[in-house]
Specification:
It is built from 14 helices and 2 strands; from the N terminus they run H-E-E-H-H-H-H-H-H-H-H-H-H-H-H-H. It is mainly alpha-helical. Among the domains are: 101-299, no CATH class; 315-392, no CATH class. GO terms for molecular function: electron transfer activity; heme binding; metal ion binding.
């Protein structure tokens, strides 16, 4: 019953997280596009800084942006904030349901750091808060006046955080926490900076006062950061299904490549939506393509080199390795307390069952160390190499 409840909670909260994430990212991308698409035209009303025309759903839309309050404030003013808040709330709930609830399996890898669930959870929560504090201090430092330097320092901070997480958590949890830390920064930007400062600006405009330009500049800085961090944080979240990313020994370097590629792709759309043409749009896709190729090649490389298996590995030995290291979870009746049934329906009680999942085993336990979860059964590198040699040789029986 506990496992059923856990699965339903995970499914429903994940569903909510995807829905709210789509709403937040969709509205964010739309307003970035809208802001960049504004054009000045003759005959615009007083106070209008630009306008944009669009067609959708059988009708035409005419949007105008006022830099000062219109002559009459509308009775209903729409704010876009709960999309962000609910994305973070549902995301943190999902983190708790999957990673905190199953900390022994999903967060802790005792070959990385021998800690208990309570310590792992405390480090997780504290790191998200510390990440925001450090980022906020950077945004209040002299770096805020130099966007290039600010992005460079932020890049180094995130990559360093990825490296630090890798010294504490399993690869899966480390990678996800990088995404969670960035997402926390982004939502805190909305909750603590963008919306409060926008409320002050609105109040000043309604009262006929001239808003402090610093308020708009601060909100714009955070909004720009959110814009460029969106694609990388999405990659961090979906990468949990792909062990060649989080399972790599140098997964922090993968974070660096993804940050760069994601930011470059967003830059292309930002420049294009602002009316950029020609050489202004010529470099982004080639650069992003090169980074993507480098990313793929990097995941195939192992820093310490591969263990060479010189003798032939036969089915009985390979199956024995799998059953010794994997059967606690992947059995009809798992002995691992975190599972009431085999994860993903993968059962390894017979040689045929092992062979049927050979390519998955290769990806999860040989090419990466994603499995066993948290390496709770202490599978060795030698065992992984021998298992890989058996699969690559066609799984010989004798």
């Amino acid at each position: 019953m506990d496992a059923l409840l856990h699965d339903w909670l995970s499914l429903l909260v994940r569903w909510l997280h995807i829905i709210t994430g789509i709403a937040w990212i969709g509205s964010s991308f739309y307003f970035v596009w809208l802001d960049l698409s504004l054009r000045k035209r003759e005959g615009m009303a007083k106070g209008v800084n630009g306008e944009s025309w669009a067609v959708h759903g059988g009708g035409f839309y005419h949007v105008q942006k006022y830099m000062v309050a219109p002559e009459r404030m509308p009775d209903e003013l729409h704010w876009f904030k709960w999309e962000s808040y609910m994305t973070w709330i549902s995301g943190f709930a999902l983190l708790a349901i999957v990673y905190y609830w199953g900390a022994e399996s999903y967060m802790i890898d005792r070959s990385v750091l021998d800690i208990g669930p309570a310590t792992a959870i405390a480090i997780s929560v504290a790191s998200l808060a510390v990440g925001w504090v450090v980022y906020d201090l950077l945004c209040h430092s002299p770096l805020k006046s130099n966007q290039t330097a600010m992005f460079a320092v932020l890049f180094v901070f995130i990559v360093a955080s990825a490296y630090g997480y890798g010294l504490v958590f399993s690869g899966r949890a480390a990678f996800l926490h990088v995404g969670a830390m960035i997402a926390t920064m982004m939502t805190a930007n909305v909750f603590m900076i963008i919306i409060p400062k926008q409320k002050i600006v609105v109040a000043d405009l309604v009262a006929g006062r001239t808003p402090d330009p610093a308020l708009g500049a601060a909100a714009k800085l955070r909004s720009t950061h959110n814009n460029y961090l969106t694609l990388p944080v999405l990659f961090m979240m979906i990468s949990n299904h792909y062990p060649m990313t989080f399972g790599h020994e140098w997964n922090w370097a993968i974070v660096a490549l993804v940050l760069a590629a994601g930011a470059i792709i967003r830059n292309y759309f930002n420049v294009r939506n602002a009316g950029g043409r020609g050489s202004a749009l010529a470099w982004q896709w080639p650069a992003a393509t090169i980074l993507t190729i480098a990313l793929i090649a990097f995941t195939a490389w192992k820093p310490g080199g591969e263990i060479v298996v010189e003798d032939e590995v036969l089915t009985p030995e390979a199956v024995a390795i799998v059953q010794t290291r994997c059967l606690s979870c992947h059995a009809t009746n798992p002995s691992d307390e975190d599972f009431d049934e085999a994860p993903g329906g993968a059962i390894f009680e017979t040689a045929d069952q092992v062979k049927a999942r050979a390519q998955k085993i290769l990806a999860q336990a040989v090419l990466s160390k994603a499995m066993p979860l948290g390496n709770k059964t202490a599978m060795t590198d030698e065992e992984r190499a021998r298992l890989g040699a058996w699969i690559r040789a066609g799984m010989p029986d004798e």
